Amino acid sequence: HRVLVLNGPNLGRLGSREPDVYGATSYAGLVEQCTALGKELGFEVEVRETNDEAELVGWLHEAADGSIPVVLNPAAFTHYSYALRDAAAQRTAPLIEVHISNPYAREEFRHTSVVAAVASGTIAGFGIGSYRLALRALAEQLPD
Ligand code: DQA
């Protein structure tokens, strides 16, 4: 299986961005970890990041059209982007929402996800490990 790991705004700055919240691993490190675990699980993983809502929406259309499973960290878009929610709703393969931090333990505005209801499931609060757990969840969801 091909798998897209899609990241929203500010996640390209992992490692230097609020390391107390998001950890010390750089974005390059995240890409490496996802690719390596993906290989182990028999996936061909492609990791992307963008600060641009339109680009992220376009990637979700691509995933829908190609029936490509997705691991999605919508970042701040999680909390207010109905456009992203509507794009994710068109999915034809599993889509796992991930968060590095636990949004429910943070500010009130992070307690709502407009994406969660159209995801297969959500994994949050395990640091970069949330992505590894999401890839493993996909491996269980997908027939060989
Ligand atoms: C995040 C949580 C969001 O609230 C925040 O806007 C992010 C990252 C996370 O991975 O913990 O940018 O999605």
Automatic annotation (TrEMBL):
Identify the EC number(s). 4.2.1.10
Instruction: Name the InterPro entries on file.
Output: DHquinase_II, DHquinase_II_CS, DHquinase_II_sf
Which branch of life, at top level? Bacteria
Enumerate the SUPFAM superfamilies for this protein: Type II 3-dehydroquinate dehydratase
Which keywords does UniProt give here?
A: Amino-acid biosynthesis, Aromatic amino acid biosynthesis, Lyase
UniProt keyword Lyase, yes or no: yes
Q: Which molecular function terms from Gene Ontology are attached?
A: 3-dehydroquinate dehydratase activity
Q: In which pathway does it act?
A: Metabolic intermediate biosynthesis; chorismate biosynthesis; chorismate from D-erythrose 4-phosphate and phosphoenolpyruvate: step 3/7
Active site annotation, chain numbering: Y22, H99
Site entry: Transition state stabilizer: R17
Against PROSITE patterns, the record matches this protein to: DEHYDROQUINASE_II
- UniProt binding sites for substrate: N73, H79, D86, I100, S101, R110
User: Which Pfam families does the record cross-reference, listed alphabetically?
Assistant: DHquinase_II
Tell me the subunit arrangement.
Homododecamer.
User: Do you know which NCBIfam families this protein is assigned to?
Assistant: aroQ, PRK05395.1-2, PRK05395.1-3, PRK05395.1-4
- Annotated function: Catalyzes a trans-dehydration via an enolate intermediate.
| Protein family (similarity comment) | Belongs to the type-II 3-dehydroquinase family.
According to UniProt, the name of this protein is 3-dehydroquinate dehydratase
Query: What species was this sequence derived from?
Result: Streptomyces pathocidini
